[in-house]
């Protein structure tokens, strides 16, 4: 029996207009009414999640969200941190060093409230990405993020696809030795503390809640969902998912523009509960 549903946001819960289809909201409420935990699992920072989570109307006493690609687990009642993984000063320096010879690549860092970018200039692409998570980039120095009293959860390299392809080809192997890395979008290459993924956070939360992996269903569409989907007892790829994601999943649902999340919950959770 499914007791927890882990749901990615972009390309999964959200449609192409970055909106939550009403069918998804209705299905989530039906699942919660049956005692199923709903956990948002996203690469987004907190600024890009709170207002959307509010739209879901899931204001239960004990709801959770896994953000920053697994670096953080929040209690959604007051958005306090239940657990987190953070970068060391050495990690932050290595990220900065890796990007310094690539003028077309921006190096960014995230804490719970800031979207930092190294340097004085903010490229249009970084401003665009920050707007997607309802914030603005803050130009900063390496020394500032290294000496911050607030934990820095992860770093991101950002650039147009051809420039980022070159960067990943030349720096990816080295970075993957020190970090958990993922090309989450064509213009984003992410670096989390080593061993940190959506799956590692989901496993930790499941253990906290006394749940087994077999009682977890995960729904996703992209490369940063792969570990989470592999961990879950029931894995669901969106209809718009990459072929790599579809290949490892137990089920394929409709696309994010066809309320595929609602379809999966109705067929695999609610219908099963009714039998």
Structure write-up:
This protein has 275 residues and is an alpha/beta fold. It folds into two domains: 4-84 and 196-273, Rossmann fold (3-Layer(aba) Sandwich), CATH 3.40.50.1000; 89-193, Hypothetical Protein, Haloacid Dehalogenase-like Hydrolase, Chain: A, domain 2 (2-Layer Sandwich). The chain has helices at residues 9-13, 22-33, 50-56, 89-99, 124-132, 142-146, 161-178, 198-208, 226-231, 243-248, 260-273; strands at 4-7, 37-41, 64-67, 72-75, 80-84, 106-110, 115-118, 138-140, 154-158, 179-185, 188-193, 216-220, 234-237, 251-252. Helix 2 (22-33) packs parallel to helix 11 (260-273). InterPro entries: Cof, HAD-like_sf, HAD-SF_hydro_IIB, HAD_sf. This is Cof subfamily protein (Haloacid dehalogenase superfamily). It comes from Streptococcus moroccensis.
Q: What oligomeric state is this?
A: single chain
Helix content: 25-40%
State the low-pLDDT regions, or none: none
Please compute the radius of gyration using only Cα atoms: 18 Å
- Under the CATH scheme, the architecture of the largest domain is 3-Layer(aba) Sandwich
Protein name: Cof subfamily protein (Haloacid dehalogenase superfamily)
InterPro entries: Cof, HAD-like_sf, HAD-SF_hydro_IIB, HAD_sf
Pfam family, one: Hydrolase_3
Report a brief summary of the structure.
This is Cof subfamily protein (Haloacid dehalogenase superfamily). This protein is α/β, with parallel strands linked by helices.
């Amino acid at each position: 029996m499914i007791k927890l549903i882990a749901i990615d946001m972009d390309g999964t819960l959200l449609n192409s207009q970055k909106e939550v289809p009403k069918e998804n909201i209705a299905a989530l409420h039906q699942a919660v009414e049956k005692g199923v935990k709903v956990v948002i699992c996203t690469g987004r920072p907190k600024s890009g999640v709170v207002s959307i989570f509010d739209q879901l109307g899931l204001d239960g006493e004990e709801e959770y969200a896994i953000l920053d690609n697994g670096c953080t687990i929040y209690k959604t009642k007051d958005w306090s941190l239940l657990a987190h993984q953070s970068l060391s000063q050495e990690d932050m320096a290595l990220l900065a060093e890796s990007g310094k010879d690539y003028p077309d690549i921006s190096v960014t860092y995230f804490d719970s409230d800031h979207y930092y970018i190294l340097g004085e200039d903010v490229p249009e692409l970084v401003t665009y990405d920050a707007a997607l998570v309802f914030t603005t980039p803050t130009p900063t120095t390496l020394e500032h993020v290294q000496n911050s009293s607030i934990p820095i959860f992860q770093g991101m390299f950002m650039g147009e696809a051809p420039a980022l392809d070159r960067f990943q080809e030349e720096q990816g192997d080295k970075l993957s030795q020190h970090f958990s890395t993922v090309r989450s979008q064509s213009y984003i290459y992410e670096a989390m503390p080593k061993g940190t993924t959506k799956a590692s956070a989901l496993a930790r939360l499941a253990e906290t809640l006394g749940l087994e992996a077999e009682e977890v269903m995960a729904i996703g569409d992209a490369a940063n969902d792969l570990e989470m989907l592999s961990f879950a007892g029931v894995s669901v790829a969106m209809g718009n998912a990459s072929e790599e994601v579809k290949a490892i999943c137990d089920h394929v649902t409709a696309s994010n523009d066809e309320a595929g999340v609602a379809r999966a919950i109705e067929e695999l959770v609610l219908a099963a509960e009714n039998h």
